[in-house]
Specification:
- Belongs to the FPP/GGPP synthase family.
- Keywords: Magnesium, Metal-binding, Transferase.
- It is built from 10 helices and 2 strands.
- By secondary structure, it is mainly alpha-helical.
- The chain has one domain: Farnesyl Diphosphate Synthase, CATH 1.10.600.10.
- The chain has a two-stranded antiparallel ribbon.
- A hairpin with a 2-residue loop joins strand 1 and strand 2.
- Helix 3 runs antiparallel to helix 4 and helix 7 crosses helix 8.
- It is globular.
- The N and C termini lie close together (about 10 Å).
């Protein structure tokens, strides 16, 4: 199970989420009162876990990795809220989370927390690649909403949407973690491809529940990365995603 795979980084994951939770309360109350923030156990930890485990490949446990893990999660949470905003405002809505205005504001609030975390950790050099990832995520959202009736019959289009909306953030998480860990230049592209394949597999399996080729490709790429005792945790993480129905993993 996922909990067993991540046991060695449980303390760091708890630290990341404790920091995130401390920012989920605003003067108006809990931000979950104004936007849907319900996440599966997997979505609460998977992206930060990729950051931490890639760092361990290069024997790096820098506090900057903890900050990057939080930043990646803020981006995911903000984009997920924005993706779920309905096209039109319901005139009879009772719950503000089901409207449009409050979720937009909460998503923007979380993007702001990504930026302040970046500043506090003094890793502003990551701003440009992270901003480019956010742009791709929203490009995917536009592509998705303008092709609602085409993507079911167009597998290439559906895959491109998943790449933009889901996989690019995983790819960035892995590559930027490698950069903070001072991975060799030749490894950074491999880390990007590793994360991209995890993201493609995760996104497709999340929508269909079916096993796909991308997790196997991620394992093949992982073989080219440094051998160290912590590498087995990344391998086991991929295998958990590959074997289990990720919609039910806890």
């Amino acid at each position: 199970m996922l909990g067993d795979v991540l046991e060695e980084i449980k303390e760091d994951l708890n630290y990341i989420y404790s920091n995130i939770n401390s920012n989920l309360s605003i003067k108006a109350g809990q931000i979950g009162d104004y936007a849907h923030l319900e996440l599966s156990s997997l979505d609460k930890c998977l992206r930060p876990a990729v950051v931490l485990l890639v760092g361990r490949l290069y024997n790096c446990k820098s506090p900057k990795l903890l900050s990057l893990g939080a930043i990646i999660q803020y981006i995911f949470m903000a984009s997920r809220i924005h993706q779920n905003i309905p096209e039109t405002r319901q005139t009879q809505e009772v719950d503000p989370r089901d409207g449009t205005q409050f979720p937009v504001l909460i998503g923007d609030y979380l993007y702001g927390k990504f930026f302040t975390t970046l500043c506090d950790a003094e890793i502003l050099h990551l701003l440009r690649p992270l901003a480019e990832i956010i742009g791709r995520i929203h490009e995917g959202g536009i592509l998705d909403r303008t092709n609602l009736h085409r993507k079911e019959d167009n597998h290439q289009l559906a895959a491109e949407i998943i790449k933009l909306e889901t996989a690019e953030l995983f790819a960035g998480a892995a590559r930027l973690a490698g950069e903070l860990a001072e991975a060799p230049e030749e490894d950074l592209q491999l880390l990007y491809e590793f994360g991209l394949n995890i993201g493609m597999g995760y996104g497709l399996k999340e929508k269909t529940g079916l096993s796909v080729k991308y997790f196997q490709q991620a394992l093949m790429i992982l073989e080219k990365l440094p051998n160290c005792p912590d590498k087995v945790m990344l391998e086991n993480l991929v295998r958990v995603l590959q074997i289990n129905d990720i919609r039910m993993v806890v």
